[in-house]
Amino acid sequence: MMKPGYLNGGLILIAGIALLIFLILKLIPNTTHDKDTTALLVIFTVVALGIIGMGSWICWS
Questions:
Q1: Which one of 11, 21, 34, 57 is least enclosed by Cβ atoms within 10 Å?
Q2: For the whole model, what pTM was predicted?
Q3: Quick check: 16 and 51 in contact, CB under 8 A?
């Protein structure tokens, strides 16, 4: 029997991975790299990594 957190954690994990892939493949190469844009990209990357960490924690706890 599956634990109740597997589905929720897995979906959150997939969403975080999709956001990180979108950032790496689409958003980062197509932006101008001034200070404001770089700060926002760092914030978005940290949020994506946080979502991945939260999803994996829910899935495997």
A1: 34
A2: 0.85
A3: yes
